[in-house]
Structure formats: C-alpha cells, structure tokens
Amino acid sequence: MTLLFKKRSNQEEEDKQLLVKEIRKAHLEWLAAQMRLDWVLEHDEIDYAVYAMEAAEKKYEMLLRQAKKLNWDKAPFSVHEPVDSSVPFLRTYHF
C-alpha cells in the first residue's frame, strides 16, 4: 500500500467519522426542537419552536442524503445509541 493511499484512506475515514458525529448531533437537535415545541406557551415561542424544528429536521435530512451519496450500503453508525445523561431533557428519551 502506498503512503498516498494510506493518507487518502485515513482522510476518508476521518471525514466519515466527522459526518457520523454531525448526523448524531443533528438528530439530537431535531429531537430537542420537537420536545421544545411541547413546552412553548406564547404565540412567538410557538413560531420560533416550529421554525427551529423545521430547520433541525432539514439539517438532519441533508446530512443523511450526504451520507447516502457516499454510497454507504449499511450505515456505519446508529443514531439509536444511549443518550448522554448529562443533557437533562434527553435523559428519559431513548432513540
């Protein structure tokens, strides 16, 4: 294996891991936005919560399409991993 090929493989793996992190983060942001919508009371808060939820959903979908373009036959990740218990409003949610 040539050094250039190793570097390219390492870079591709790092890029893939970064995309996986971004997908997980976007998924959590989307779930948080959905939960926020359940708690809003004022009209302005509702508008903001809906906008934030739609934006988070679009970001998540965009990242998933990006992963699909990379021809990942099987996702090398799962968004269904244990939730970080340090985030209070996500403690009881398992996705």
Largest sheet: none
- Mean pLDDT reading: 77
Q: Ranges with pLDDT <50 over ≥5 residues?
A: 79-95
Distance between the termini: 40 Å
**Percentage of residues in strands:** under 5%
Structure, explained:
The chain contains two helices and no strands. The protein is elongated, with a radius of gyration of 17 Å. It is 67% helix and 0% strand. The model is unreliable at 79-95 (pLDDT under 50). By secondary structure, it is mostly helical.
Summarize the structure.
This protein is an all-alpha fold. It contains 2 helices and no strands.
Identify the notable features of this structure and list them briefly.
mainly alpha, elongated, disordered C terminus, single chain, 0% strand, 95 residues, 2 helices
Helices, strands, pairings?
Blueprint: H1 3-39, H2 43-69
